Amino acid sequence: MKTLYQCGIGTEKGFEGWKVLGTSSATRTYFERDHLEFFQHQSGNYNISISKKIDEMIGFTDLRLSAQTDIIENCAIHCVTPYVSTDGKRWKTINKDARLGADIHTDKMEFLYVKFVLNMTFYQEGRFRLNRIAVYGDYAPEKEKVDIATSQLTDIANGTYCNQKKEEFLVFSFEKKINIETQNENQYEFVLVNTLGQVIMREKSEGSRRFDTNVPDGIYFVTIMQGDKKMTTRKVVLN
After folding, report:
1. For an engineered disulfide with 192, which of 147, 164, 201, 216 has Cβ 3.0 to 4.6 Å away?
2. CATH number assigned to the domain comprising residue 59
3. What residue numbers bound the domain in which 68 lies?
4. Consecutive sets of 10 residues in the chain, 239 residues long: mean pLDDT of each?
5. Are residues 131 and 17 part of one domain?
6. Domain count, the chain
């Protein structure tokens, strides 16, 4: 898997930018250079959450979230539960302790936020440290399932794409523009689909062409059709 994000011990990033919730007025939180430390004067049970937007996650079908903790004194960490979200408001639980590495597969490839909830008990003058967080990703085209309500495009759901060197249409993107290069002189249909399977744009054209799009940043699929024949399907990133 590819390392998408990491912070803490052994990395070049600290915990700046992470949002901390669930502590009390008696909790002291220290953002050190290579770790995040909590000190609690009073004993009690707490669910401390830390969350952050990680743009690098988008476009990956498989994610692994990992957290490394360290009990310094007078506390017990029962579980570190990871969550993912597309908007930072509605969260999907990954039912595995992140200290062991928690995996999730997603067809939509739209998760942008991560959250870790630490279920723990502080005893008087308790102290613990969050040493490291890492997010890994993998892109598995054969697992994509884009549900398009157009019968001509149902074979995109397989997520198998032909080698462009053997195709008549070369598809590539730059910023919000999609370029089609071809020597094919016949009319074709350009179809732009989002990761939810919704057809965003459909237009007939001929020859090489640049299509201007006005869509949110993200992952999209371009399909070129000639009659009932799919000439190519390519994934593009528009931003």
Report:
1. 201
2. 2.60.120.260
3. 2-138
4. 91 93 91 93 93 86 92 93 92 90 80 94 94 86 39 43 59 90 92 86 93 90 90 88
5. yes
6. 2
